[in-house]
Specification:
It is built from 8 helices and 10 strands. The strands form 2 sheets. A 5-stranded antiparallel sheet has the order 8-1-2-9-10, with helices on one face. A 5-stranded antiparallel sheet has the order 3-4-5-6-7. The protein has 290 residues and is of the alpha+beta class.
């Protein structure tokens, strides 16, 4: 009689965690920081089409690192979850905290029950009327939720990058200053990044109902070199300051979607968890919004 194959549960969890961390470390990092004007999100991403930073709802943004096709599925599921809750109750009932909890349940369930964990780290950010009301929720591959008070760093080089960013980040500074500090932290001491290699967006504190706005290449280039852009003549005189063209090569894009698609079961688990109605939502006395 053959003995059944046995692996200790602790070893299984350790192997899954190592697998997920290695996949995430292969990608490029992302930082987010609070400013006087709102929340600034900056990622190293040379692709012009594969977005790592996106809008979820009126005052909520999503950012992810790791395998692109996996965190993009989470983004789509989060948009559906927020839209359904806002339509069923009111737009004010959609908040980053409940969305982060839903993401944590989905990631934790996949990590525990599926053979392959999701190789992602995600950030859910919500801008408030004051800097003290801003919320940054960092969700790890195993469903762990970290409430970041002022800044968040995602990716494989998070420790060194976080130290560089924290050393210069001032939450009371304006958005342009925080953007400049974030780009310098991403680049590190040994290299420089062009505007074409940066994806940046912000949640504007004094914006309209929808506060998410992508930053243009001109805004990013001005943050990289504050002396650039003083006049049109100065821009044309130094072509090195112009944004570099995005590469069309799949090798240069962040976590291209050409890799193996995530298994059907984890995607079904994510959709099922995020589409569950929230029993603790506020009553429907507010007018439903489409």
């Amino acid at each position: 009689m053959s003995m059944p194959f046995y692996v200790a549960p602790e070893q299984v969890m350790k192997d899954r965690a190592d697998y997920a961390r290695k996949g995430i470390a292969r990608g490029r990092s992302l930082v987010a920081g609070v400013s006087a004007d709102g929340i600034v999100l900056v990622a190293e991403n040379p692709s012009a089409t594969l977005r790592k930073i996106s809008e979820i709802y009126d005052r909520i943004a999503f950012a992810g690192v790791g395998r692109y096709n996996e965190f993009d599925q989470l983004r789509v599921a989060g948009v559906r979850h927020a839209d359904l809750k806002g339509y069923s109750y009111s737009r004010e009932d959609v908040d980053a905290r409940s969305l982060a909890n839903a993401y944590a349940q989905a990631l934790g369930q996949v990590f525990t029950h599926e053979m392959k964990p999701l190789e992602v780290e995600i950030l859910v950010a919500e801008v408030g009327p004051d800097a003290a009301d801003d919320q940054l929720f960092h969700i790890l591959y195993d469903g762990t939720v970290i409430d970041e008070p002022l800044r968040a760093v995602l990716g494989g080089d998070a420790e060194a990058l976080g130290e560089r960013f924290e050393a210069d980040h001032d939450p009371a500074a304006d958005a342009a200053t925080v953007l400049r500090v974030a780009i310098r932290a991403l680049a590190g001491p040994d290299r420089t990044l062009s505007a074409g290699e940066i994806e940046a967006a912000m949640l504007e504190r004094n914006g309209d109902r929808r506060t998410f706005r992508r930053l243009t290449d001109d805004e990013i280039a001005a943050a990289i070199d504050p002396t650039d852009g003083a006049s049109d003549d100065a821009d044309s005189a130094d072509p090195a300051d112009a944004p570099q063209a995005d590469s069309d090569s799949a090798d240069d894009s962040e976590d291209p979607a050409t890799g193996p698609e995530v298994a059907g079961d984890p995607a079904d688990v994510v959709d099922a968890v995020l589409e569950e109605p929230d029993g603790d939502a506020a009553g429907g006395d507010g007018e439903p919004a489409g």
